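User: quick one, sequence for these tokens?
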């Protein structure tokens, strides 16, 4: 059964089971010009989900690490000014004069032990890792959105089943009372039917509560209320054809693996940047200044100077050496974490594949059980009419049918969600792979806008 036909099968099964009226079915399940498709819901989640937007903002903040690292190539400029009144001389002769000065100082680093190069490369690696983290968040958001979408449809179907069950049992109560009134039944039959009707009413209230919860989660993730939802899930086309294909795709497409690889690069450049603190630092410093009334005989004086400075670290108390050792241990940790991530992704893919296959088998079994139980219920009702079955037999058969119908709806839901989980596990549940009709978020645009900025307090969007 394809992903597209799965929920349609739910709707058809519900109609055949007598669970909902045709009008209710059309408003809830059947695709129409006014029904919201799952692709439209995913597009809304992609554009509006606050968790995903927060991850995008976090990436924009991480982008700023690169211009901060690049600032090591750029000069620093400072200016100063002072003014005051001086008193000079002896006890008998005191000279008072006003004094003022201004100065401008420029310092340009020529060599920092390759720290600027390695810090920049480290920052760039962290940006690439954060982009993969954003992609992972995007996939998690779309998976949550698809799950919320299908859960609303499942719980709507279960509510319809419970309503149909309650209507059936209420009819059994009426029939039992009629038989009792004409002396063909007993008070026990009436009581049993009433008890089952009360139980069905409680189950309906529980199903309604579950539906309200699913609708609230849908609103939280997607941003709008769940109204008319289409049964078109369109996920089977993205599901890998085999487990081996799924594992191969996960190696190249899973963003968590790529993120771990970039973090290894960042840890390596971090070691080199710290080691650069053991190398000399070369700077070129220049300044110009003017002073007014620097002495009693001088109205003003100008001064200009330029110096080259070399600072050679000889011993820093062992702090830098300790940080180098610490960074090497962190590099080893990130490499081990890469292996852990690969193993975890592999386990997730195998688990998702198994769940997906199990859900397909469960649908076949549940469909067979529903058909068999429908025939059994019809037979029990006919046998009751000729006195070979009791009211309790009919009630038990109806309860079993509702249970099998609920299992079928749940199995169909599990298959669809399992398909989305499998696609997410291999790393293909993103807006580009799904072809969502949305304006794509381009993380490189902000990066390019801020990477080479020398000055400015406003963000690229004007804040």
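Assistant:
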């Amino acid at each position: 059964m394809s992903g597209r036909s799965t929920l349609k099968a739910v709707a058809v099964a519900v109609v055949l089971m007598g669970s909902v009226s045709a009008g209710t079915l059309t408003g809830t399940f059947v695709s129409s010009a006014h029904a919201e498709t799952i692709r439209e819901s995913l597009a809304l989640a992609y554009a509006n989900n606050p968790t995903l937007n927060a991850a995008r903002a976090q990436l924009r903040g991480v982008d700023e690490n690169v211009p901060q690292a690049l600032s090591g190539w750029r000069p620093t400029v400072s200016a100063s000014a002072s003014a005051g009144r001086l008193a000079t001389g002896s006890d008998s002769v005191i000279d008072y004069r006003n004094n003022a000065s201004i100065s401008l100082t420029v310092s340009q680093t020529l060599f920092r032990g390759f720290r600027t190069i390695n810090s920049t490369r480290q920052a760039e690696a962290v940006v690439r890792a954060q982009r993969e983290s954003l992609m992972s968040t995007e996939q998690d958001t779309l998976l949550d959105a698809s799950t919320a979408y299908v859960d609303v449809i499942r719980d709507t179907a279960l509510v319809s089943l419970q309503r149909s069950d309650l209507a059936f049992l209420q009819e059994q109560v009426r029939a039992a009372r009629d038989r009792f009134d004409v002396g063909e039944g007993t008070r026990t039959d009436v009581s049993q039917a009433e008890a089952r009707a009360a139980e069905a009413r409680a189950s309906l209230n529980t199903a309604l509560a579950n539906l309200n919860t699913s609708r609230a989660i849908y609103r939280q993730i997607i941003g709008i209320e769940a109204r008319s939802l289409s049964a078109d899930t369109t996920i089977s086309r993205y599901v890998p054809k085999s487990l081996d294909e799924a594992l191969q795709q996960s190696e190249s497409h899973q963003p968590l693996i790529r993120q771990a690889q970039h973090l290894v690069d960042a840890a390596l450049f971090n070691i080199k940047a710290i080691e650069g603190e053991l190398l000399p630092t070369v700077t070129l410093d220049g300044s110009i200044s003017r002073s007014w009334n620097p002495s009693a005989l001088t109205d003003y004086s100008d001064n200009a100077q330029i110096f080259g400075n070399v600072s050679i670290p000889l011993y820093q108390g062992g702090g830098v050496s300790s940080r180098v050792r610490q960074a090497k241990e962190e590099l080893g940790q990130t490499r081990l974490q890469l292996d852990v991530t690969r193993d975890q992704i592999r386990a997730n893919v195998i688990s998702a594949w198994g769940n997906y296959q199990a859900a397909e088998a469960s649908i076949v079994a549940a469909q067979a059980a529903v058909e068999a139980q429908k025939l059994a219920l019809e037979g029990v009702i006919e046998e009751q009419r000729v006195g070979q079955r009791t009211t309790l037999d009919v009630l038990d058969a109806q309860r079993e049918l509702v249970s099998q119908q609920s299992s079928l709806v749940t199995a169909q839901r599990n298959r669809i969600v399992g398909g989305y989980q499998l696609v997410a596990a291999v790393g293909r549940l993103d807006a580009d792979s799904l072809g969502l009709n949305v304006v794509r978020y381009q993380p490189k645009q902000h990066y390019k806008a801020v990477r080479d900025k020398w000055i400015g307090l406003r963000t690229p969007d004007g804040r």
